[in-house]
Structure formats: C-alpha cells, structure tokens
Amino acid sequence: MKYVILGNLPWKSFAYKEMLKHVPDGETFIFIGNKPEHENEECDYTFMNTDMWEVNGGSEYIAIVCSPFWIQQALGGGFSKVLFIMDDCPVEEDQQIWNKYSGLLAEASDLVITLSEKTYLEQSLRRRNLYWWDGDHEDTEENHALLHLFVEHVVQGNPLDELMRRQWEQRIQLYSRLYRQMGPHETISYLLASYWYFLGETGAAQALQESFEMMLLREHNGTLHSHYRFFSAIEIQQGEIERAVYTYAITAVLPHEKETLARMERWAAEERLELLKAELYRVNEDYRRAEEAAERDDSEAAAHFLADMYLEQWMWEKALKVMDRYQLLYENGISREQVRAILLWTRGRKHEAVSELLRASVQDWNILISFAETDLLEQACHRLKERVNHGSGS
Question: Which pTM was predicted?
C-alpha cells in the first residue's frame, strides 16, 4: 500500500511516527513537509514540500490526514481512502472553525482515528468507522494490533462494526480489572457503564447507578446532566419509554430543555414513538441511535429532525441528502445552497462553490458570510503549511 501523510508538524516534531508503524503493508510513504537538515533518524519516507506537492496517480494512495485544515487536499486529492487523525484544537487556532472542519472531514473519511478516550467516547455516539489509538495505557499491544485490522478492513471495503465492538470489549476487560483492583470508583464505573451501553448490555444501569451515587457522596457538581440523564438513554434502549421520559423530565430545567420535554410529550400523545426515541437519544448525545429512530418514522417531521441534527453535528453530506429529498430550503438558519457550496469547497471545487453561493445570495445576501468563513479556512491552511514546511507560522 502507498500512503501520503498530510501532517500537522514537521517530521522532527511529528507525534504519530509510532502509529504509522502499525498500518499494513507500507511499501511507499510520502510525508508532506520538509525533513530537517542533519536529521539522524533512519527513515524510508519520501519528503515533499507542500508548495511543490502534487500526487501523481493519487487514487493509488491512502491519505493519512492529521489536521482538518487539509480538508480540501484530502477530499479533492482523488485518494483511494482517507484516514483522519482527530486531535484537539491547537491553542493558536479558532476552536469553532477547527470543530466544524473536523466534523466535515470526519463524516467524509473512511476511518477516523482518535487520540483521547474522551474524544473516542463522544465520537462512538456518532459514527461506526472509529478507532482509538491508546498511546500510553495498559494493553497497548492489543490495541495497536487492531489498527492494522481496521485499515485492512477499510481497504477491503468491509464494515468496521465488529472491530469497534472488539475495542469496546477490550476497554471493558481493562476497567473490570481495575475495578477488581481498586474497588468502586466513580470514573471507572462510569466508563464501564458507557462501554456496556455501546454494546447494549444490561450491566450499564448498575455501573451508572454506582458512579452516580459516588459522585453525589463526593459532592461533585453537574451530576444531574452528566450522569443522571444517562439513565434515560439506558431506559429507552431497554424499551422503558415512559420511564425514560420521566427521567429526562427531572433534568429538564432550562427553557430549551422544557421545550424539548413538551415536544416529547406531544410525540407520546400522538404515539409517534420513534420520534420520541429519537428526541431522547439526541438529548443524550447518542446521535447514531437518534438517527436510526428518526429514519424509522420516515415523515416530514423526522426529516426536519434529521436535517437539524446533521447540521448541528457537521454531518452535512447527510443533511444535504435530507434537504434535497424533502425540498427543505432552510434548516436551523442554514440554506440548502450554503450546505452544498461548503461541501463543494471542501472538495476543492471552488468555482462551483462560489457560483452556488452567488446564486443563493440573490435571495439572501447574508449567505455571502460563507465567503468570510472559507477565507478563514484558507488562512488556517496557509499557517499549517508554514508549520509543516518550516516549523513556523503558529
């Protein structure tokens, strides 16, 4: 296999060298960025300056993308597969822009690799093409061996669900062992509850109960939302719909939460149970199960629900399909043309994107704000190239 690495730092500072050793059959590696002079490390990589780089026969290469600001190069480069390493936003970059293009790139990537367990847990509620690289914890050998299998499955076009289940089971084994060694602990119990919930196993409720009680005893703030609301997701998963609504109602204290509760009560009265489930999953940030429930309803109300959720979570390809199917001109204050234009822009099709925005601006000049945002992306990409090439621009 041939790989192109679109890095985030020069090779000397590049943090993912060990990870790259675990991808399968690497016959060719091209690192986009300059190798520093007097670099003593033995390296079989080819180094290319970002200003000089053009991949000939890009379809032969797998792109490993280490920053969302490479999104146009990654999605417009004609690569056979795109692997996106999702990391935290650098302090010098805009968090909102980073999150948006991380979400858009993650949606379009064949595999998303996360570097923290917190991010992994969050992303496991969104997608089924996710792997967590455990850099410095226990059982790393087994964890790292999985990366080889994940990439192989991606190349072969096989689903990744079973591999994700295997990684969840690895985490359960680890935390079960820690639980036996340390005894009850709020964090360990919460993590066990999370992984059991992913697997749909009954142990989730008991582990969450234990974690919640210990958090209360230690007077931690915020447990009503961070822990207690989680019970409603577990209850809806177990088919206890009425109880799940009641549990959510206890946590619904803010105005927008009360509006959501009123909507749930309306769905319940109308026996729109799939939309009710979708609402409950969404407030628990389980967007994948919310999507599945709303799709089973298959109504215009469900279409609005899905489009709104997709736009909020930067799943804009899915949002556009729903908006096109149901002829939704606007959703959540965003026009269909804006969505289409941004997706074109992220694939390097700038002329088509600009034409789309200009046509839409005849009806609403506020759409031209999107031009300013794409300029911010261009500037961020320029700074990224400077860092990768010269170790500057931060």
Answer: 0.93
